[in-house]
Write a structure and sequence with these properties.
The protein is mainly alpha-helical. It is 74% helix and 0% strand. Helix 1 packs antiparallel against helix 3.
């Protein structure tokens, strides 16, 4: 893997992380509660979804 490729991959993951946090944070409260998601957990959930366990 080249240096440029790894930078692009990291940037893509960071963008996916930010999109996921934004989407989870914007869920209506009733939907979030149905999914058992607390708004404060959005960064943790997004990190696990994008970067793995």
């Amino acid at each position: 893997m080249t240096f440029i490729h790894s930078i692009r991959q990291a940037a893509a993951k960071r963008a996916a992380y930010r999109r996921t946090v934004r989407a989870l944070s914007r869920l209506p409260i009733d939907v979030a509660l149905d999914l058992d998601i607390y708004a404060g957990d959005a960064p943790k959930i997004a990190r696990r979804a994008v970067y793995g366990a």
